[in-house]
Design brief:
mainly alpha; elongated; 3 helices; 49% helix
Length: 81
């Protein structure tokens, strides 16, 4: 027996018989779906992709995003570190 089966057997010992049957049924259905490689039933179709348009951030002349540390020092002072 593999490790999964051993762990399942241990877990099943603590459960009620009807719970064990439900879990076994669900596991068998999942394995059957995996064999068929079909998506799970009743899943909604994927939603429309969310996109936004980039906009200029309006950085003041003379400032650059190339050195963020320097930009933070100018905006916040040396205490930003």
């Amino acid at each position: 027996m593999n490790a999964i089966a051993v762990n399942l057997e241990k877990e099943f010992e603590a459960l009620e018989p009807e719970d064990v049957q439900s879990i076994q049924r669900a596991l068998l259905e999942m394995l059957a779906m995996a064999r068929r490689k079909q998506p799970a039933p009743n899943l909604p179709p994927p939603g429309k992709r969310y996109e936004i348009q980039a906009r200029p951030l309006g950085l003041k002349p003379g400032l650059s995003y190339d050195n963020i540390g320097e930009l933070l020092t100018q905006a916040e002072g040396e205490d930003w570190k």
